[in-house]
Design brief:
Blueprint: H1 13-39, H2 41-48, H3 53-87, H4 95-106, E1 110-113, H5 116-121, E2 132-135, H6 137-185, H7 194-215, E3 221-223, E4 233-235, H8 238-295, E5 296-297, H9 309-323, H10 327-378, H11 385-398, E6 403-404, H12 405-422
Parallel strand pairs: 5-6
Antiparallel strand pairs: 1-2, 3-4
Helix pairs in contact: 1-3, 2-6, 3-4, 3-6, 6-7, 6-8, 7-8, 8-9, 8-10, 9-10, 10-11, 10-12, 11-12
Length: about 450
C-alpha cells in the first residue's frame, strides 16, 4: 500500500493528474491486498474455529480491524471517484476545480462512519464519543496500512501454527499408537513398566497439546525479535519436541526389550557359565587356603567367602521371567545380573590370588635357590662345603612344612651372598703372586 503526497498549495493540472494516477494505482493495490486477506485460508479457519485465550482476544480485534478496513476503503474509493469526477468535468480544469481537487486530495475531506463496536475493538480506536472520523487521503492510507499489517500478522501467525503443529502432532500420535501396540505385545504396560507409564503420559500430553493448538494457535507462536513484517516468527514446538524425544526414548527401551526376547536364552547360558566359573574359583581358593595354612607358617591368609547365593536366586528369577515371557522385567534384571556376575568372577579371582600368594612366594624362593645352585655348578663350585651348607639350610626351610617364609627368605639371601662372593673375579695378592683370595673370612 502506498502513501499519498504531502499537503501544499493549490495544485496545478499536472500535479492533480499525477496524484490521481498514483491514487488509482494505490487503490488497486489496496483492493488486491484486502481481497487476498478476505480469501486467506487462515482467516477462513479463524472465522469457523472455537477460539480461546490469546487467539480469541486478538481475533476479536482483527475482525474489528478488517471491518474498519473495508469502511476506510469504501471512503477512500468514494473520495477517489469524486476527485476523478471533478477532474473529468473539463479538459482544462479551472482554478476553482483545482482548488477543490487540492482540498479533496490533500485536506481532511474524507469522512468515515463506523460502528461503535468495531471502533472499540480495533487496535487503533476512534476518539471516544465519535462515530465518524475525518482523514486526509494520506492519513487514511496510513491508518489502513496499520490495521492491515496487524490483521495480516495475526492471520498469518495462526495459519502458520495450524499448518505446522497439528499435522506433526497427528503423525507423532500415529507413531505413538504403533509403539503402544508393540509395547503391549512385549508386556510393557502402564503400572508394570516405566516405559508404559511414559506412553500414557505422552498420550495425554499430545491430546491436550492438539486441543490447545487448535483453539489457541497464537499461544504457540514465537514472534521474530525486531521483525516488523507480518507473520515474522515461527511456531513454538517446544512441547512437541520434548514429547517426540520422550517417545524416542521409549522406543529405544522397547527395542531393548525386543532384543532381550531374541537372545534371552544365550544370555542366561552365559550368566550361568560366569557364575559357575566364579564358584569353581572360590572352591579352588578355599582348597588352596587349607593347603597354605598347612604348609606356610607365620603368614596372614585371608578368609574365602561362600558362593553368591543371592545371584543364583536372581538367576532363577530371570529364568522364570523368560518362561512366562515377561520380557519387560527380564531386560533390566539381565543387565544387572551380567554386571554383578562379572564383578563376582573378578572377586573370586582376586580371592584366589590373595590366598595363594604365600605359595607363590615360596615357589619364587625355591626357583631363585635352584637358579643360583645351577649357576654355582656351572662355575665348578657345586661341592664347595660352605655353599653346600648354606644351600642345605635354605632347602630344608623351603621344603619343610610348615615353612616360615621370612626365615626361608633370609636363608636364600645368605646363600646368594655366599655364592656371589665365591663367583667374584680373582684378584692378585699384594706380593704379586697370583692366587684366590679367601673372601669367606675366618671360620667361614
Amino acid at each position: 500500500m502506498g502513501v499519498a503526497g504531502p499537503p501544499g498549495p493549490v495544485m496545478d493540472r499536472d500535479e492533480v493528474d499525477r496524484a490521481l494516477a498514483r491514487l488509482g494505482a494505490e487503490h488497486e493495490a489496496i483492493e488486491t491486498s484486502l481481497l487476498a486477506l478476505q480469501d486467506h485460508a487462515g482467516r477462513r479457519l479463524l472465522e469457523g474455529a472455537e477460539l480461546t485465550g490469546t487467539t480469541k482476544e486478538r481475533w476479536t480485534a482483527a475482525e474489528a480491524s478488517i471491518t474498519l478496513l473495508w469502511a476506510y476503503f469504501d471512503a477512500y474509493t468514494d473520495a477517489l471517484h469524486s476527485a476523478r469526477g471533478i477532474r473529468s468535468r473539463r479538459r482544462w480544469s479551472s482554478r476553482e476545480d483545482l482548488a477543490e481537487l487540492t482540498e479533496l486530495l490533500r485536506g481532511e475531506c474524507v469522512t468515515v462512519a463506523g460502528s461503535a463496536t468495531a471502533a472499540a475493538n480495533a487496535p487503533e480506536p476512534a476518539a471516544p464519543g465519535r462515530l465518524s472520523e475525518q482523514f486526509t487521503l494520506a492519513a487514511l492510507v496510513d491508518r489502513m496500512n496499520g490495521l492491515y499489517a496487524s490483521s495480516l500478522d495475526m492471520v498469518v501467525a495462526a495459519d502458520a501454527v495450524w499448518s505446522a503443529l497439528p499435522a506433526r502432532i497427528d503423525l507423532l500420535s500415529a507413531e505413538l499408537q504403533r509403539t503402544r501396540r508393540l509395547a503391549h505385545s512385549v508386556g510393557v504396560r502402564p503400572g508394570e513398566h516405566p516405559a508404559g507409564d511414559d506412553l500414557e503420559r505422552i498420550t495425554r500430553t499430545l491430546t491436550s497439546l492438539r486441543e490447545r493448538v487448535i483453539s489457541d494457535p497464537l499461544a504457540f507462536w514465537q514472534a521474530a525479535p525486531g521483525s516488523s513484517a507480518p507473520g515474522g516468527g515461527r511456531p513454538d514446538t517446544t512441547t512437541y519436541d520434548r514429547e517426540a524425544r520422550a517417545l524416542e526414548d521409549v522406543r529405544r527401551e522397547i527395542d531393548a526389550v525386543l532384543t532381550v526376547r531374541q537372545d534371552a536364552e544365550a544370555r542366561l547360558v552365559r550368566l550361568r557359565d560366569v557364575l559357575s566359573r566364579a564358584d569353581r574359583t572360590l572352591a579352588e581358593a578355599r582348597s588352596a587356603r587349607g593347603e597354605v595354612l598347612a604348609k606356610i607358617a607365620a603368614s596372614e591368609v585371608p578368609a574365602v567367602s561362600g558362593p553368591p547365593t543371592a545371584l543364583q536366586e536372581q538367576l532363577a528369577t530371570a529364568a522364570e521371567y523368560r518362561r512366562h515371557a515377561q520380557w519387560h522385567r527380564l531386560s533390566p534384571l539381565l543387565e544387572s545380573l551380567e554386571e554383578k556376575a562379572e564383578d563376582e568372577l573378578l572377586r573370586a579371582r582376586e580371592s584366589l590370588s590373595a590366598v595363594t600368594q604365600p605359595l607363590a612366594v615360596r615357589a619364587e624362593l625355591r626357583g631363585r635357590l635352584d637358579a643360583y645352585k645351577a649357576k654355582v655348578a656351572r662355575h665348578g663350585l657345586a661341592e664347595d662345603p660352605f655353599l653346600v651348607e648354606r644351600y642345605d639350610a635354605a632347602r630344608r626351610m623351603l621344603w619343610s612344612a610348615p615353612c616360615d617364609l621370612r626365615v626361608a627368605e633370609q636363608a636364600v639371601l645368605r646363600y646368594q651372598r655366599a655364592a656371589a662372593e665365591l663367583l667374584s673375579p680373582r684378584v692378585p695378592e699384594q706380593d704379586g703372586q697370583s692366587g684366590l683370595t679367601d673372601r669367606r673370612g675366618p671360620g667361614a
